[in-house]
Amino acid sequence: MRDSPSARLLPLPPGSWDGTTREFAMTSIRRKLLLTLLGALLAAGFTTAAATFFSAQAEFNEFLDTHLKETAESLGESVRNSAFPINPSPHMTIVGDAESYQIVIQVYDSATNSVWHREGSPSLPLPEGPGFGLEQVDGKSWRTYAVAAGPLIITVGQDTAVRTNLAATAAFRVLQPLCLLLPFIAIAVWIVVGEGLAPLERTARSVARRSPTSLTPISTKGLPSELLGLVSAINQLLERLEQSLSAQQRFASDAAHELRTPLTALKLQVQLAQRAKTPEAREKCFVRLNEGINRATRLVQQLLTLARLDPDASKKPMSTLRLEAIAQSVTEDMQPIAAQKNITVEARTEPAHLDGMEDAVRLMVANLTDNAIRYTPEGGRIEIRTHSEGDRSVIEVCDNGPGINPEERQRVFDRFYRALGTKTSGTGLGLAIVKRIVDIHHGRITIEDGLEGRGTTFRIDFPTLGASSPDNA
């Protein structure tokens, strides 16, 4: 049983290929190109024919006017040189009077007030004077030329429609070859357009056959340059999509793994509090439970912050920032926290500018400073520095803590990674967030030795202006 029209309009399952839709799309493109090209050819042909018509009409007018004049003057000269008065004969033949020109000759004798013209030819009005004229006879326009020969007035006339027909014939001869070739041109265009669209058809079939999870690049082998740009753009989009999906999958996996531990610890603390036999033991469990909740809350906040730093964050609006002002602000915010460990936090700043997102840059500096406070022992010192180096703006967070081993300096930016041997609690996400913010602003981050030859310095340099531009990446 044949499918009904409504059945053919149902959406296709992923990966299927509707041949009817494909053929309709191909035909539509072919038809549009075919009609456009044929229309352009016809327009050019008719324009050329019109130009030929007016040009030929002007040339025929000039030529036939000359012919009328020569015919009339030749007859007049013959009459003047004749020893006898002219006695026209009904069978008189004029040399040069071509039948296709349809010339009418009329002779008026003023002495006898009589008019002679060929039988069946129209009677032309008497001219007002010698020379060219335009007369209306029986609703038709006639071009005339008159000359006087003694008592005779010789008038030679021609229907202007003859001239128009001659010019139209010339124009048609120009247009005729194009009209004859038009079907062959249409067939050739149909075939050529079909061949040209074949790579598009093959590419469409290749995409339609893919599974929804396939993000491998589309083959560009044998594609024309017009289609190559589109397929390359799609491949770039697939690459970015694959990176985004991989990042989301990795993030979800890591987040689930990291949340499992603090949630399990919270559950155990609740169970211990329920089984506690003395108020002191129960209070101790509640203190540990509160600490666990704070750690879990911090982890969730860090995860949300990292999730908000999406791959397209660099395309968000940027503003010109003063890094020295941000460094001073973060220093003031962190001093009360550092004072709990008797750590000194100072800002040593010089003017430095950056095009970026203020909240993200402030979070970056705050994370680095908080990281330094947590790892620097009591009585330590932390400095936040800003300055410019050529066309780069630099911000540094330095401490005199235990430092980071050179072999671990690249890994500390990985999510949930914590250096071996550290006794300080943390989520392992702070430096990952810092690295993401640096990448968004197309900066560079390096780890060097800290204050007094020990500890750690996180050095970040950005393009002074236009940090959001991909050209600066």
UniProtKB/TrEMBL annotation:
Task: Give the signal peptide, or none.
Answer: none
Enumerate the UniProt keywords alphabetically.
ATP-binding, Kinase, Membrane, Nucleotide-binding, Phosphoprotein, Transferase, Transmembrane, Transmembrane helix, Two-component regulatory system
Spell out the InterPro entries in the cross-references.
2CSK_N, HAMP_dom, HATPase_C_sf, HATPase_dom, His_kinase_dom, HisK_dim/P_dom, HisK_dim/P_sf, Sig_transdc_His_kin-like_C
Topology in the lipid bilayer is annotated as: Multi-pass membrane protein
Family annotation (Pfam families): 2CSK_N, HATPase_c, HisKA
Q: What is its main location?
A: membrane
Membrane spanning residue stretches: none
Molecular functions per Gene Ontology:
ATP binding; phosphorelay sensor kinase activity
Record's catalysed reaction(s)? ATP + protein L-histidine = ADP + protein N-phospho-L-histidine
Name its cellular compartments. Cell inner membrane
EC class name: transferase
Q: Which CDD domains does the protein's record reference?
A: HATPase, HisKA
Q: Which residues form the Histidine kinase domain?
A: 254-466
Known EC number: 2.7.13.3
Protein name per the record: histidine kinase
